[in-house]
Design goal:
202 residues; globular; transferase; single chain; 6 helices; Rossmann fold; alpha/beta; 5 strands
Length: 202
């Protein structure tokens, strides 16, 4: 049994969750772990001097729990409740991949935490320009809600900081333009994963 661990990281509102869900429908034996499920409760998240809750940093997340969950999945993906029947219209490239399990891990801060970086087979990073990201963010409702100035004061600066760190330290990251259509992004990542599956089978 082989496992393929795919990271789908990047900017807030970049389309990570949508892309992950669509890939799950198209790939056999595929499961998703979402970083958003590992946020600490609001009472444990630090507040800065401007009153902003610091959610867009690693300290706001139970990262060690996340690593444990991924490792647990890797040990026994079949027992995680992953759906093992082939998706409808499975293309010929995917036949005979019953012994390969795919985990898509999606989240905004995946590649700046060393213990996670040992686990990836492929890493994707969705980007958006500032204006588009701010526009999309303004249409979403968060719990707790974004306070005035939160995007410019915390969310965007943290994205830029972590993206710069990533560019300095990481190789083998595929950057994706989040302004492209969902179909384009899906097609690009899907065909890439198919190549990885082929390599695994060789």
């Amino acid at each position: 049994m082989k496992v393929l661990v795919i990271g789908l990281g990047g900017v807030t509102n970049g389309g990570k969750t949508t892309l992950a869900e669509k890939l799950k429908k198209m790939l056999p034996n595929c499961d998703i772990i979402s970083q958003d499920d590992f946020f600490k409760p609001e009472s444990e998240v630090e507040t800065d001097e401007r009153g902003f809750k610091l959610y867009d940093v690693l300290d706001a997340l139970y990262m060690d729990e996340m690593v444990k969950s991924i490792r647990k999945w890797m040990k026994s993906p079949a027992s995680s409740g992953v759906v093992t029947e082939e998706p409808p219209n499975t293309c010929d490239n995917l036949k005979n991949t019953e012994d390969v399990y795919i985990l898509i891990v999606e989240g905004f801060l995946l590649y700046n935490y060393e213990p996670l970086n040992e686990l990836w087979n492929r890493r994707y990073f969705l980007t958006l320009p500032y204006e588009e990201c701010k526009r999309r963010r303004s249409t979403r409702v968060y719990q707790p809600a974004d306070t005035p100035g939160y995007f410019d004061g915390h969310v965007w600066p943290m994205y830029v900081k972590y993206k710069n760190e990533l560019e300095e330290n990481a190789s083998n990251v595929v950057y994706l333009d989040g302004t492209k259509s969902q179909e384009e992004l899906l097609s690009c990542v899907y065909s890439d994963i198919i190549q990885e599956l082929k390599k695994l089978r060789e």
